[in-house]
Specification:
The complex is a heterodimer. Chain A is of the alpha+beta class. Chain A has helices spanning 19-29, 61-65, 90-94, 119-123, 134-139, 144-156; strands at residues 5-9, 40-44, 47-52, 71-74, 77-80, 101-102, 108-109, 129-133. Chain A has a single domain (5-155), classed as 2-Layer Sandwich (Alpha-Beta Plaits), CATH 3.30.70. A two-stranded antiparallel sheet of chain A has the order 1-8. Helix content of chain B is 23%, strand content 31%. Chain B has helices at residues 10-21, 44-49, 61-68, 127-134, 149-160, 181-193, 289-303, 333-338, 380-391, and strands spanning 3-6, 29-33, 71-74, 77-81, 86-89, 94-96, 99-102, 106-108, 121-123, 141-145, 164-168, 197-199, 204-210, 212-218, 221-224, 227-230, 234-236, 248-249, 252-253, 266-268, 275-276, 283-284, 316-321, 324-330, 344-350, 353-360, 363-371. In chain B, strand 5 (86-89) and strand 6 (94-96) form a beta hairpin. The longest helix of chain B has 15 residues, at 289-303. Classes of the chains: A alpha+beta, B alpha/beta. The interface between A and B is large, with 39 and 49 residues. Bound molecules: flavin-adenine dinucleotide.
Chain lengths: 159, 392
């Protein structure tokens, strides 16, 4: 089995240069448009308070909750199949990271790790977003939420 | 074995989808659909406010289902003959079935007040309503009656289009069926601050006008209005099952935990039917898309030979209204009370979010949050799993 890689986020290192957001939008839709990006930098009073992007939980609350078969875990990635999604938004309600967002016409967007070569990581100049083996994220610094969700899901074993 | 599905909305289309997924021969599935292609009502407000094409509302899997070879009759089912096991269509043709799935959805409820028949009164419910509102030009005054999820999303979409919008709500609080008072009062302040006029505790008594709407009379006062949009709830659309012997409760089709009605080989899902609440085990009427899809899957399982019963639904609702994030998982205090529980509410507040957990005998049964920043982070996921662990 291929080692599972996910994004490792360190908001302390982020200076909100927006390169990741623009690169993500370009990779996804060919244009630079924040609303088409699957990653969002949230700044409040000049301070980066969050980088909202999918952590590819496994098991994942969004996958458990989707009644439309639109979300699934594939090679360690949580992927959204647009053709099956009706925008009921149940997944947004249970995402611990605020990582699923509405784009134009209510279309939902979330990170798919660019199929294994994330554009955001390629352009991030500060190392705030890295693409690393999942087990390294767990043992190293990890957002407290990510840690609890993992422990939590292990405990109860998803749905 | 032939399965006929009446209704090409969420319940109908996802029943067809899950049937094919579980190995049912596509060619043995027929969908009778009054509206085609299938679309998602969940996108009406966004498509309206962003002035996008109606194509954005279509549900992508219909092409896949057509490619697989399911049959679609673009028409209206007029009568169900349960002894002859056939459906009669408007226009005279008929089709026989081995299994029948009723997914006829709901119909908007319009309160019985004077003036509702005037031109320029409408609902916000289907693609026809969307088309009407898309044609609106100029700075209009629009009255939205009912401050539920549909009313408030419609109101903020119409405001974004440039209309002056006033919302009227009979209950003391906005989103009365969705969130509880501490949250709804904060949300009301926020939306009012953004320029949405909201009158709570205000029953609309009459729509004023001659032929066309001129105003709305509420609490003895008359506010001018050019268009009135009713978002006063949904009722089951079940005229078709009258005189069939299929059991209904206040108009909604009663189904068991396999999605089956009181008549063998006839199933129902979606806004035309009741569903089960996971926490209390009770029958409830929850006209929500994910409820329709949940029972669609259960029904498809049972038709394809795997006996499957649902444990019920834990509501999982998110909506963005005018930039505020609304989240609700499990039961609200009010819904829990209406289901016979004696819940308590514990709330937390930060600068950009208010959230409350609903408890019953110290066990979490619900969570609700309203956030006012761009961040959507809360503990809903935790309560969602707690509920599944505690009650399943
Ligand atoms: C504006 C709006 C926003 C919403 N947003 C959300 C949301 O964000 N999340 C969520 O979970 N839910 C949402 N809902 C609720 C959701 O849309 C419904 O619960 C869902 O559509 C129900 O699916 P259904 O298949 O039962 O009914 P419908 O989707 O209404 O489909 C029923 C279909 O059957 C057809 N039909 C009826 N009678 C016949 C007949 N005799 N013969 C042939 N065809 C017939 C109808 O024309 C219709 O196309 C929203 C609803 C509205 C109105």
């Amino acid at each position: 089995m291929v080692a599972k890689y996910i994004l490792d986020i360190d908001i302390e290192k982020c200076n909100a240069c927006m390169r990741c957001v623009f690169a993500c939008s370009l990779a996804r839709s060919g244009v630079i448009d924040e609303r088409q990006a699957m990653i969002k930098i949230i700044v409040e009073k000049g301070i980066v308070i969050d980088i909202a992007v999918c952590r590819h939980c496994d098991p994942a609350p969004c996958v458990n909750v989707c009644e439309f078969d639109a979300l699934r875990v594939e090679d360690g990635r949580v992927v959204l199949d647009q053709s099956r999604c009706t925008t009921c938004k149940a997944c947004i309600s249970v995402c611990p990271f605020g990582a699923i967002r509405e784009s134009y016409g209510g279309e939902l967007v979330k990170c798919d790790l660019c199929g294994g070569d994330p554009a955001c990581v390629r352009v991030c100049p500060t190392g705030a977003i890295k693409y690393v083996p999942a087990h390294m994220v767990k043992t190293r610094r990890i957002s407290s939420v990510a840690k609890t969700i993992h422990e939590y899901l292990e405990k109860i074993g998803g749905r | 074995m032939k399965t006929v599905i009446i209704g090409g909305g969420i319940g109908g289309i996802y029943t067809a989808y899950y049937l094919t997924k579980y190995g049912y021969t596509p060619n043995n599935i027929t969908v009778i659909a009054a509206e085609w292609p299938p679309y998602s009502k969940h996108r009406l407000a966004e498509v309206l406010s962003e002035k996008l094409s109606i194509d954005y509302t279509y549900i992508g899997i219909y092409n896949l289902l057509l490619d697989k070879g399911i049959n679609v009759i673009h028409g209206v089912a007029d009568k169900i003959d349960v002894t002859g096991k056939k459906v009669l269509l408007k226009g005279g043709s008929e089709i026989t079935y081995d299994n029948l799935v009723i997914a006829t959805g709901g119909k908007p409820f319009i309160p019985p007040i004077k003036g509702v028949e005037l031109d320029n009164t409408m609902s916000f419910y289907d693609i026809g309503d969307l088309r009407k509102l898309m044609r609106i030009r100029g700075p209009l005054r629009i009255a939205v009656i009912g401050a539920g999820l549909v009313g408030l999303t419609a109101a903020s979409a119409l405001k974004k289009m440039g209309a002056t919008v006033t919302v009227y709500e009979l209950m003391e609080d906005i989103l009365p069926g969705v969130i509880d008072k501490p949250l709804s009062s904060k949300l009301k302040n926020y939306l009012s601050g953004k320029g949405l006029r909201i009158h709570t505790g205000t029953g609309v008594e009459e729509i004023i006008g001659d032929r066309r709407v001129k105003g709305v009379k509420a609490s003895g006062r008359i506010d001018p209005a050019d268009i009135v949009v009713f978002t006063t709830g949904v009722r089951p659309n079940t005229d078709l099952v009258k005189d069939t012997g299929i059991e209904t409760v206040r108009g909604a089709i009663r189904i068991n935990r396999s999605g089956a009605t009181s008549i063998k080989n006839i199933y129902a899902t979606g806004d035309c039917a009741l569903s089960h609440d996971l926490i209390t085990g009770k029958e409830v009427y929850r006209p929500l898309g994910f409820v329709a899809a949940h029972y669609a899957r259960i029904i498809a399982r049972n038709i394809t030979g795997t006996k499957k019963e649902t444990r019920g639904i834990v509501p999982t609702i998110y909506e963005n209204i005018g930039g505020a994030h609304i989240v609700r998982v499990g039961l609200s205090l009010k819904e829990a009370e209406s289901l016979g529980l004696s819940p308590t509410l514990r709330c937390e507040e930060t600068i950009d979010q208010i959230s409350c957990t609903v408890f019953e005998e110290r066990r979490p049964i619900g969570y609700e949050a309203v956030g006012f920043s761009e961040r959507i982070r809360n503990k809903a996921w935790q309560v969602y799993y707690d509920i599944h662990t505690l009650f399943s």
